[in-house]
Design goal:
InterPro entries: Myotubularin (IPR030564), Myotubularin-like_Pase_dom (IPR010569), PH-GRAM_MTMR6-9 (IPR048994), PH-like_dom_sf (IPR011993), Prot-tyrosine_phosphatase-like (IPR029021). It holds the Pfam family Myotub-related. Belongs to the protein-tyrosine phosphatase family. Non-receptor class myotubularin subfamily. The chain folds into two domains: about 100 residues, PH-domain like; about 150 residues, no CATH class. The two termini are about 35 Å apart. The chain is elongated, with a radius of gyration of 26 Å. The chain has a seven-stranded antiparallel sheet with strand order 4-3-2-1-7-6-5, with helices on one face. A two-stranded antiparallel ribbon has the order 8-9. The protein contains seven helices and 13 strands. The chain is about 25% helix and about 25% strand. By secondary structure, the protein is an alpha+beta fold.
C-alpha cells in the first residue's frame, strides 16, 4: 500500500465532454489495480485500469479547484477538478507510481490472489492449449489436418508449435513455402466456419520480387483452395496499397502474381504502413 499516497478523494468534479462539459460531482478512488470515479448519484462510473494509463497531467490551479487530466491508452480522457491542490498533488503522485512497475511480478495479476487459492504460479502456462482450440472448429477433418512441422519453432519463430494446414500438404511443401515467405510465415488456417466450407488463412508476403517463384508455395495455395469445396477462386486479401506492394517487389518481396498462381484473385485494401497509421492516431489524439 506504500504506493498509494491517497485512496479516496471526495467532492471531485468530472468534466463530461460528451455532455457539454457538464460538471458531475462524485468521489475519486485509487486502488492497486484501478482508478475510478463514481458520481454522487451513482449513475456515472468511470473506470481505468492502472496499466492502461498513458499519462497524467496537472493543470494550473483555478478558482474552482485543482484540475488534472488522465489519458488512457484506450483513448479515454478523464478530466477532473479536485477541491484542493494538496489532493491534486497526492493523486498525481499516486497515479505516477501506479502506472509504472519495476518488475513484472509487481503487476496485479501476479501480486494479488485470493488467500484460499492453491494454484501454482506456473499453472497459467497450461491454461491455453492450441489443439483444444482448433478442435472447437471441428479440426482436424477430412480436408484439414494438424501439423507439428513447427514443433521447435525452427520453421517460423512467430507461429505456434501446432498449426492447421490442408491435409494434402506435406512437411517438405510447408518448409519450402516458409523459405519463400517473409519471416517464414507460410499460409496456415486461422478460422473455419461451422459449415466446414469457408476458411480464412493467413501468411506474410512472398519473397517473389519480379521473377522468383516457388512451386511448393503455389501448390500450397491451390491446396487451400481445394480444401474449400464451394470455392472456385482463392481470394487473396493484401491490406497494403497496391503501390506499396509493387515497391516491395523491387526489394525482393511483393505479392502473389495471378499469372503465376492458379485460380486466385488479389484485392488490395489500401491501408498505409504502420508509420502513417501511427501518425494518424497521434493526430486523432491531439484533436481530442
Amino acid at each position: 500500500m506504500d504506493r498509494l499516497c491517497v485512496t479516496q478523494v471526495n467532492n471531485v468534479f468530472y468534466l463530461d465532454h460528451f455532455d457539454g462539459n457538464a460538471h458531475i460531482l462524485g468521489t475519486l478512488h485509487l486502488t492497486l489495480t484501478h482508478v475510478f470515479f463514481i458520481g454522487a448519484s451513482r449513475r456515472q462510473e468511470i473506470w481505468l485500469n492502472n496499466q492502461l494509463i498513458s499519462s497524467v497531467e496537472r493543470l494550473p490551479l483555478t478558482t474552482g479547484g485543482a484540475p488534472i487530466i488522465i489519458r488512457g491508452k484506450n483513448f479515454r480522457v478523464i478530466q477532473l477538478i479536485l477541491p484542493r491542490e494538496r489532493d491534486c498533488h497526492n493523486v498525481y503522485t499516486t497515479i505516477k507510481r501506479l502506472m509504472t512497475v519495476e518488475s513484472v511480478s509487481e503487476l496485479p495479476c501476479f501480486c494479488l490472489s485470493p488467500p484460499e487459492c492453491g494454484w501454482s504460479r506456473t499453472d497459467g502456462w497450461n491454461r491455453f492449449d492450441m489443439e483444444t482450440q482448433l478442435r472447437r472448429f471441428g479440426l482436424p477433418n477430412s480436408t484439414w489436418e494438424l501439423t507439428n512441422v513447427n514443433d521447435d519453432y525452427q520453421v517460423c519463430d512467430t507461429y505456434p508449435t501446432v498449426l492447421c494446414v490442408p491435409s494434402n500438404a506435406s512437411k517438405s511443401m510447408l518448409k519450402a513455402s516458409a523459405r519463400f515467405r517473409s519471416r517464414g510465415r507460410f499460409p496456415v488456417l486461422t478460422y473455419l466456419h461451422s459449415n466446414g466450407k469457408s476458411a480464412l488463412c493467413r501468411s506474410s508476403q512472398p519473397l517473389a520480387g519480379f521473377s522468383s517463384k516457388c512451386m511448393e508455395d503455389q501448390f500450397l495455395l491451390e491446396a487451400i483452395r481445394l480444401a474449400n469445396p464451394s470455392c472456385s477462386v482463392l481470394y487473396v486479401v493484401d491490406t497494403r496499397p497496391a503501390l506499396n506492394a509493387l515497391t516491395n517487389r523491387a526489394q525482393g518481396k511483393g505479392y502473389e502474381d495471378a499469372t503465376v498462381y492458379r485460380n486466385i484473385a488479389i484485392q488490395f485494401f489500401d491501408i498505409e504502413n504502420i508509420h502513417v497509421v501511427r501518425n494518424s492516431l497521434e493526430k486523432l489524439l491531439k484533436g481530442k
